[in-house]
Structure formats: C-alpha cells, structure tokens
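User: I'm putting together a teaching handout on how multi-component assemblies are represented. Below are the sequence lines for each component of a complex, exactly as they appear in our records. Could you produce the 3D structure of the whole assembly as structure tokens, so the students can see both representations side by side? Please keep the chain order the same as the input.
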Amino acid sequence: MLEIKNLHVEVEGQPILNGIDLVIPDGEVHAIMGPNGSGKSTLSYVIAGKDEYDITDGDILYNGESILEMDPAERVAAGLFLAFQYPIEIPGVATMTFLRTAINAVRKEREQDELSIPDMMKLIQAKAKDLGVKPDMLKRGLNVGFSGGEKKRMEILQMALLDPGMCILDETDSGLDIDALRIVSEGVNALRSETRSMLVITHYQRLLNYIVPDKVHVMSDGKIARTGGKELALELEDAGYAEYDEELA
Amino acid sequence: MELVRTEAENGLISLSQDAPLDGPSWLKDLQDKARAEFQALGLPNRRVEEWKYTDLKAAMKVAFQPVDQGDITQAQVNELLGSDLAELSTQALVFVDGQLNEGLSDLSVGEGVEMLSLKAALADDVSWVKPIGTVQQNERDAVQALNLVLMQGGAAIKIAERQEVSKPIHLIFVSTASSESSVASRLFFDIGAGANVEIIESHLSLQNQASQTNLVTEVLVGDWAKVRHVKFNNDNKESVHLSNVIGKLGKESDYGLFQATLDGGLTRNQVEIRYDGDEAKADISGVALLSGKSHADMTLVMDHAALACESRELFKTVLDDEGRAVFQGKVVVQPGAQKTDGEMMSKALLLSESAEFDSKPELEIYADDVLCGHGATTGQIDDELLFYLKARGIADAEARALLIQAFVGEALELIENDTLRDYVIDQTLAWYEKA
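Assistant: Of course. Below is the structure of the complete assembly, with chains in the same order as your input.
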C-alpha cells in the first residue's frame, strides 16, 4: 500500500506539489490525469527518489514505512518501480548486462540468491518474448536506437523482471501508436495482481481503455482536485481540463 | 649561454657515455649523433612546445640506474599476467629488467617469422635491422635520442611477405628490481608485404618498485600488411614510462594500435605515424584511467605524405583525484596528400574537481581535397543517466562503475582480439573498484 500524506514539494524554491493526499491499496490500479504542468511527473520522480526536489512537508509511506530517507535503489528493492516517460539511452551499456546487473542488485538487497547466468538468461528471454522484445535489442546498448514503442516495452520488461509491489507508469502512452499501445498495455495488465498496485499517470483517456483503473484522480496545480471511478476519465475526455486549469479557463 | 643541467640530466649524460649494446659502425655513428643531440637538448620541459603540459625535466629529479637481470620464474610471470593473458596462446618474448630472457622466451622460428634479441641482431649486423634508428626522424626528440644510446636490449622481428602469423607475438616486459631502476628497450619490426600479425605488449613489475622506462618501437609496415598492436602498462605511482611508437606505413597497409594506461606515475605514450604509401590506414586509440597524482600524456603525430590515406583516433580518459591527462594530436597533410581522411576524437570524464585534462588537437593541412576533423569533450557523470540506473535498483557505486565502463567501452570495442578486450575490460573494472 502506498500512502502519500500532505506532500509539498519545491524545485529551486518554486512550489510544484501543494499538499497531495493519496492512498493506493494493494491490488488497486489508480490513474492520475491532469493538464501539462500540473505536477504529475514531479510526483512520480519524488516517489522514485530523484534528488533535485525539496520535500518541504508531508510524507510518503510504502507498506507503512516512510521512504523519504531511502535512496532510489533502496526504494526499488522495497518494491517501488517507475516506468519513465522518456527512457534514457545509455550507449556502451549492453541491455542484457544492464538487466542482469539490476536484477541481481535487487535480489541481493531483498536477501534472495543471485541468479546464475543461465537461469538469468532464461528468465530474461522468456519475459522478453512475452513483450515482443526482440533478442537483438538485448544485445544493443540500453535503449540506443530503439523506437518509442521499443523503449516503452523495455520499461515494462524491466518492471516485470524486478517484480515490484507498486508500479508507477509515467505517461507510458506518450509516443506510442495504437499497436504499440496495445502490446504495452497487455504487458502491464499481465502484471496486475491482488498484491501489486499501480499508479498510471497520463494526459489522455486513451490508455485507460486498455489499462482500466479502479480509481481516477485529477491533478491540478499540485493537488488532487477530484477523485472518481473509471467513468471520470471519459468525462475528462469530453470536457477537457479547462475546469481544472486556470490558463485554459 | 651556459646550460644549467639538472641532476637527472647529468646522470643521463654520464650513463650515455658508454652504449650498453655493441653494434656495427652505422649504429655507432647514429649513437654519436644522438648523444650530441641529447647533450644539446637536455630533458624536455614546458618551454618545448611538444612538452608544454608534461614537464619531464621538472618531474624527473634523478636518473635511475639500470640493473642486472634479476631472477624470475615462468610461474611468477604468469601470475603477473593474470590467467586470461597467461592462457592466451601466443609466442611470448620475456624481457627481464631490459634484457631478453631466452629461458622464458619462445624464440622458435615459425614459418616466415624471425625473432632475434636486439643484442644478437646488432652484434651480428643482421642486414634487415639496418633501419633501426632511422625510422625515427625527429631530430629534436631528446627521449628518442636517449633511447638510441641507452638501449640495453629488445628484439628485432621480421615477418615474411604474405605471412599470416597464427599466434599473436606477446612482448612481456618485467621489472624485478627490489629498488629504483631504469630500463631502456627498443623493438624493431619489419612486417613484410601482405603479412598479417598481432602484437601484444605488457609492462609488469614484480616488486612494484619505481622505474624509469624508455621504450622505442619502430614498425615498418609493408604494402597491404595488416598489424594489430595492443600495449598496456600499469606502472608504480613513482614511475616514469616514456614510450615512442614510430611507424611507417606502406601502400594499402592497415595498422591498429591500442594503448591502455592505468595510473602509473608519469606516462607518455607518443606515437608518430608516417604514411608512405597510398591508401594506407591507421587506427590509433586508447584509454587512460588515472587516479591519485598519475599523469598520462598521449601525443601523436599522423603524417599524411601519400594519397587517400585514412587516420582514426579515439581516446577515452577517466580522471579521478588529482589525475592529469594530456592529449596532443596532430594531423599533418603534406602537399599532394589529396583525399586524406582523418578523424580524431578525445573524450575525458572527470570524476573529481581536482582532476585536469589538457587537450590540444592540431591540423596542419597543405592539400585542398581532404576530409579532416577533430573533436574533444570533457564532462562529468550525467546525473540523468545515474538516476535511471539507480531507479532500476543499482546502487550508486555500481551505477557509476557501469557509466564509466560505458564511457570507455566505445574505445575498448576497437580491440579486435576477444581475450585481450575482456582482459582490458577486467582491468578497467578493477580500477573503478579501487578508485
């Protein structure tokens, strides 16, 4: 369970999040929608532990414990996972090497045995196949020369491999055509379970046709402005964000 | 004006009164000239343009003395090499404290391959070693001049025309001295037309004592020949390692040199390539990983004197602590060397505020139809990349090591031999763990 309590965040003295309250129980999928600049991505980065943000008030608890003092790698071991909106290209780090390093780092931190190379290869290749990640991509530099869809599939592959309890998907639909969106969504849906929660951040309702949320929150000006069921997304699709966005209103 | 000489210069002049190797009269003439050159030039210092960033005169306080060849067993040599290199199937020549150790070396004559100790080759005045001392053409280079007089040993290797040498030739230089020592060695290669050979050079120290190494390698690459040459050194932090690789490339030949420097005291890897035949190509690359107060200088001159030749240079330097690296790359395109294609890139990654990287690329172009470019970058570890790796559960230190590995990886990819490449990768990983 993820609990965000009265979270206030600033960047270089500029307030971005102004008191977020949000609870995502185990097994639920919540969506956060909102206009550009409402603080959606900031929230995802703050949960993941990026260090350029000043948390001026509030707390984030995961399974009852505050994660604010944990570094990003510890948060991953604890069960949090952020799928990036813009996955980073790292030339010179082979994708397979990166995946092996990440999996074993997390297993070690979770006091699980490291996987042998053959077991690791089997695991990675099986999950890669499910997501339509071609073997050739695993040999290339991480995300180097990958298409938008391939990068997002690689994010979901990492999510599947690191076995998180709480997945945050930051604008996973951006830059995807309809086929890629379907494949990525199927990958995400396959990971839904009673013990795993998800926070899906998106600007558009389209993604939520594929990944159907239990709850939808509208974010505006660094706060949750409204919460509803999945039908709220459809309402936003029709009415737009004007009601929530001073500049649009 | 009266020259004020340093203690090291006086020591070197006194050492150079007698040349350790007995050679024919042509060599004695060259040595007399070189001795006079060194006396006139002294040790290079910051007032000499090519040594502006590497003041050898200031850094080298005293001249260490050469030592007699010490004892070392095959097992000790293998241990120093590490299992990867020791198990690599090569024809190995082992030089102990500057002398070829025939007991540890494999001097068996393979088909089309002649290997002689430099001492024997000069004593017998073997005809094909006559270019020794003349491949180097720079008369203003005090270090090269000094080597010609002070060389104690080395090897002369001739590869016959069209010979495909199956095993790499591994030149292993080991210092066994239990105190400071100096070593001056020279290698001479005569690679026949159309031949194909791989050369590996390792520089090792048994007792990790400070040493002063002066190494000159002269390589004549015949027409259509292909040479792959990899050199690594990992010297003591008080050591001075001066290396010169001087190559002359024949028509359509292909020479690749990769040099890896890990720490050390003061290291200068100087390379001078002269393109003598049309359409030759050279790929000169390397990595330097420097911590503490290590100083490494990569100076190269690519002298295009023929048509449509190609030069590629890629250097990656990682600097921690007060490490300092110098890159000086000069591409010269002589009048008439049309269609020259030169690309030079030097990149440094600074891990500390006190590290320093000096880069001086130079193009001297006297032809109008050429394609030459150079670039240099200096940067730090990218925070976005670092965060991405950490957001995948990889701890800070390991994430940094991966990014450093990725940075040098582009250059390491250029080592064609898989075992050697893996060896260099392991060495670099060991360096990050230590740093």
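A couple of points students might notice: Chain A touches chain B through 27 residues (CB under 8 Å). Chain A has one domain: 2-244.
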